[in-house]
Amino acid sequence: MSKKSIPQTLFDKIWDQHIVQQKTAYPDLIYIDRHFIHEVTSPQAFDGLRQRNSAVFRPAQTTATADHNVPTLNQHLPIVEPLSRKQVATLVENCQEFGLDLYGLGHEKQGIVHVIGPEQGLTLPGMTIVCGDSHTSTHGAFGSIAFGIGTSQVEQVLASQCLLLDRPKTMRIEVNGILGEGTTAKDLILYVIAQLSTSGGTGYFVEYAGTAIKALSMEARMTICNMSIEMGARGGMIAPDETTFAYLKDKPEAPKGAAWETAVRYWETLKTDEGATYDKVVYFDAQDIEPMVTYGTNPGMGIGISKRIPIATENQAALQKALTYMNLAPQQSMQGQKIDYVFIGSCTNARIEDLRTVADFVKGKQKATDVKVWIVPGSVQVERQAQAEGLDQVFQAAGFELRQPGCSACLAMNEDKVPAGKYCVSTSNRNFEGRQGPGARTFLVSPLMAAAAAVAGEIVDVRKWIK
Q1: N or C: which end of the chain has fewer CB within 10 A?
Q2: How far apart are CA 216 and CA 210, in angstroms?
C-alpha cells in the first residue's frame, strides 16, 4: 500500500506536508508558516541573531505584539513599571531593526498574541504556527499545528523559518452529546483536564472531536485548544469546517476572491481519514459535565460545582500542600466560598463572545460591594466591539471595571496583581501558586461562572441563577 493511500489523522496530514528534511533516527525538519512573537521571550533570540550577524529569514511571516507586560490602564502614558517598560521598548527596537510587523501599544491591532492572530486572519487551517508562549495551542482550533517554543527555538525560526522536531504521538479526545444549561467550553476543558490530570496528555498532540466539539463556536473552540497544554499535551487541534470558514471569511489577512475559494477547497480536505489510527483515544459524554471550578494549585484540581473537594487516595502530600496554600479543606463545598476579586480576561476567555456572555448575565444586576471586578478585553478590536455594542455601559452600571487590552492578571507580569491571601475567581488558564500575584489564590472558572460570582460575592452554581 502506498503512503498516500494509508489513512491519516489530521495532525499527520499537516505535519507531513511541512517536512523539509527527514532522516532516520533524527528529528524532522519542519517548516513554520506563521511565527508570533511578544516582548517576553524574544529579546535573547534577537541578541542571538546579532551575535551571528544574521537577518530574519522571512520577516513577512513573523508578527509581533506587546501583551504580557503592558498596563491595562492609561496605555497612552509611559509604562510606569521599569522592567515592563524596558521589555516593551526592547520589542519596539528589535522589530524596527529587523523589519518586522509590530502591533504595539496604541496600534489598532494590538492585543494578546493568541487573540489577534485569529481575528486578523493570520491564523489559518493547515498551517504550522509557533510562538514563544505555551498557549500557542489556541490556534489549533482552526485545524493547524500550533504550539509553544522556547527562546532558543524562537531564534531558530527567525533565522531559518524551520525547526528540528520529534514527531509527537497522537491522541483523540471525543466528546459527544449536548452540554447542559450554564455549562460552557471552559467547563468542558476543565472537566477533561480533571479526568486525565495535568500529565495525561504528555507526549501527545490532541485532536478534539465529537458532536459536542463540532457544536461549538470558533471562540469556544479556541478556549478548548488553549488549555491543551494544561494537561501536558504538546498542542490541541480541531478539524476545520463550515463554522471555521464562516469565522475567517472577510478577515483582513484571510485569502480573498478566487484565492479564498481555492483555500477552502484545500481546507475541506483537512480532516482525519476514516480508518486512521491514533496512539490513544479517550471518550467523554457531555451530559456528565457541569459548571466547573478549581480548588487547588493546578488546572487538574477541579470539580463540578455540585461536588466537594476530594479526599486524596494518592498524592496526599500534593493535595495537602495545595489546600494549605488555598486555605481549603477536603470534603468542603466550593459553593459559598467568599471571594475578593474577579478577573475576566486572558487568551483563554477575553474575546467578544466571552464579554457578551458576561454582559448578558449581569445586565440589571450589581456586583457585590466587597468584590473588585476587572474585565480585560483580549485586543483593541474586542474593546472597540464591546463599546460599539454598549457592553461597556452594562459593565459600568454593574460596577465592573472595563480595562484596556493585555494579559493583565492572568500572570501578573504587569501592574494587575491580586494581593497576597486574596481569592480571585479567574477565567484564565492557570492557578499556580503566585500566578496572579505573590500569595494570590486563584479559582479557575468560565466567564458565566465568574459573572455569577461577581454578583453573589461568592462562588455559586450559575445554573440556579439562570433558572
Answers
A1: N
A2: 11
For 257, residues 6+ apart whose C-beta sits below 8 A from its C-beta are: none
Note the residue count of the chain.
467
Q: Is residue 245 helix, strand or coil?
A: helix
Give the helix, strand, coil percentages of the chain, each rounded to 5. 35, 20, 45
Residue 389 · residue 356 · CB < 8 Å: yes
Q: What is the pLDDT of residue 314?
A: 74
Domain 293-466 -> CATH class: alpha beta
Question: Is beta strand 28-31 parallel, antiparallel or unpaired with respect to 19-21?
Answer: antiparallel
CATH 3.30.450.40 fits 169-288, yes or no: no
Numbered ranges of CATH 3.40.1060.10 in the chain:
169-288
| Segments of the chain assigned to CATH 3.30.499.10 | 8-165, 293-466
Angle, CA of 382, 36 and 202, to the nearest 5°: 100
Q: What is the pLDDT of residue 406?
A: 97
Give the neighbor-by-neighbor strand order of the sheet with 204-209.
Answer: 235-237, 204-209, 169-176, 280-285
Taking 70 as the threshold, does the pLDDT of residue 298 lie above it?
Answer: yes
Let me know the angle formed at the C-alpha of 269 by 265 and 271, rounded to the nearest 5 degrees: 145
Helices (H), 281-431: 316-326, 352-362, 380-388, 391-398
Cell digits for 169? 504521538
Name which of 61, 212, 205, 211 is nearest 137 in CA terms: 205
| Mean pLDDT of the 306-318 span | 88
Tens-digit pLDDT profile for residues 53-106: 999 999 999 999 999 999 999 999 999 999 999 999 999 999 999 999 999 999
> What letter does residue 383 receive in the DSSP assignment?
H
pLDDT digits (tens, 9 = 90+) for 164-175: 999 999 999 999
Q: Is the domain covering 8-165 a CATH 2.40.40.10 domain?
A: no
| Statement: residue 444 has pLDDT above 70 | yes
Residues 6+ apart with CB under 8 A from 269: 13
Q: What is the pTM of this model?
A: 0.97
Q: Could you tell me the pLDDT band of residue 4, with boundaries at 50, 70 and 90?
A: low
Give 97-133 as a 3 state SS string.
HHCCEEECCCCCCCECHHHHHHHHCCCCCCCEEEECC
Q: Cell triple for residue 309?
A: 473537594
Per residue in 320-339, is it b (16+ CB within 10 Å) or e — as a string?
A: eebbeebebeeeeebbebeb
Grid coordinates in use for 158?
Answer: 527567525
